[in-house]
Write a structure and sequence with these properties.
It is a single chain. By secondary structure, the chain is α+β, with helices and mostly antiparallel strands. The chain has one domain: 2-Layer Sandwich (protein ne1242 fold). The chain has 1 helix and 6 strands, in the order ββββββα. The protein has a 6-stranded antiparallel β-sheet with strand order 1-2-3-4-5-6. Strand 1 and strand 2 form a beta hairpin. The radius of gyration is 11 Å and the shape is globular. The two termini are 13 Å apart.
Length: 77
């Protein structure tokens, strides 16, 4: 399991906490913000906060966070 790390996107600092099975809990400016999961190499899904079920739909912010996670993982190897 990866250790938590910070990324900066859209002038915000996001703290990324890797969870089980490719799910990541994201904190924005220190407050729990959302959970995301990889759908494809370039598409990420936001998870419903109540049920944990993926919400399908294009979300630019979620995809940008996901791409930063992929870049961070590649650089960590």
């Amino acid at each position: 399991m990866l250790a938590p790390f910070d990324i900066e996107i859209f002038d915000y600092t996001y703290s990324v906490f890797p969870e089980e099975e490719g799910v990541y809990t994201i904190y924005k400016e220190g407050i729990e913000y959302l959970q995301i999961q990889r759908d494809t190499e370039s598409q990420w899904l936001k998870l419903d906060p109540e049920s944990g079920i993926p919400l399908f739909g294009l979300d630019e912010e979620v995809n940008a966070i996901g791409q930063a996670i992929v870049a961070r993982e590649k650089n960590s190897r």
